[in-house]
Amino acid sequence: MRTPEIAVLGLQQMFEDGKEVVVLDIRPQEQRAEWHIAGSVHQNVYAGLVSGDKTVFDDTTFDKDTPIVTVCAGGKTSLIAANLLNEKGYNALSLQGGMKAWNYAWNTAEIKDDNVTIVQVRRVAKGCLSYIVGSEKEAIVVDASLDPDVYMELAKSYGWTIKFVMDTHIHADYISRSMELAEATGATQLFTENAGVDYDFVPLSDRQVVPFGAAELTAIFTPGHTAESISYLVADTYLLTGDTLFTDGVGRPDLKADHEQGLKKAEQLFNSLGRILTLSKHDLFILPAHTSNTITFDGTIIGDSLSNLSKNIALLQLDKEAFIEQTMKRIPPTPPNYLQIATLNKSGNYEGINPADLEAGANRCAVS
User: Fold this and answer.
1) Could you give the CA distance from residue 235 to residue 233 in angstroms, rounded to a whole number?
2) Please, are residues 74 and 100 in contact by the beta-carbon 8 Å criterion?
């Protein structure tokens, strides 16, 4: 008898193709609350499945013509669930590797104008956002978080050669793949001149302009979330803000800092946000490095105009003292493994480490 499983790429393709499917999350509620697959439904049957209870789906009434994909943390208990559902006449498959594997599922959205095309590459469960920005036949990649092949294949599909790769900061919630991508493509790796990392890169100074194709990128130093945080202004229209400014909040200033250091970083963040708010004579479109929500396969870009964000994010309307106080009060829970991840990203080497073992779980970078 065949093993009723589906790989991440298989479920990803079903979503891309718009096929009807029920994604059934059978994890405990506290795990689902942490992160989940967008559009999935939940049945809290995990304990029953583990104990061998074969009646947990007796009241289930899904359409038997619609395939069901069962999901757990690692793909083992969901296999038990799929087998039980199949015995009841459903067409059920277990997601191989569970949420740990779905961490690397991705999709894209696009912005295009006369100067540049921006492809937003989104890790749909974790909410990580990276970018390929192309002009004529050249492209840059910012905040690569997936296997280099993903970016190389996307660039190829647009007829682009990847010229530069860069990060917006030393990430603490996922292993950066920028160095690998630079090595695989021969692209030049750029970073802020005060990055403090242990690997070689071409340093950028504040306001330095980097040409690619018929467009250009301008480096804007925006410390606060981290000391080396940098934003990238593309074609004087789009600002890739990393973890400095999100569509629903601002970056947290407390990681790798005690309380006093956190206060100083919060002040830096306030000043950087003020700089962003006055950066251009016309309205900028903000493209962050994360979203706090699971991402659907709708092709809608995650970003917003700076004018909208300045009205909708309450923290951006405060004076310095109030901003620092409220930001430090609203710090979300500390992300797991962040010190180890940040240390690995600073070294530029994660040999012998499986990123999936460190990266599972939602991101917690925003203060709203």
Assistant:
1) 7
2) yes
pLDDT per position as a tens digit, 216-232 = 999 999 999 999 999 99
Q: What is the mean pLDDT of the chain?
A: 95
Report domain extents, the chain. Answer: 5-101, 105-367
| The residue to which tokens 């919060």 are assigned | 266
Q: What's the rounded Cα separation, in Å, for the pair 124 and 126?
A: 6
- CB within 8 A of 290, min separation 6: which ones? 127, 128, 129, 173, 243, 246, 363, 365, 366
Please write the tens of the pLDDT for every residue from 292-301: 889 999 999 9
Is the full-model pTM beyond 0.90?
Answer: yes
Best CATH choice for the domain 105-367 from the list 3.90.1150.10, 3.60.15.10, 3.40.190.10, 2.60.40.770:
3.60.15.10
The three-point CA angle 343-346-352 to 5° equals 60
Please say whether the structural domain 5-101 has been given the CATH code 3.40.250.10: yes
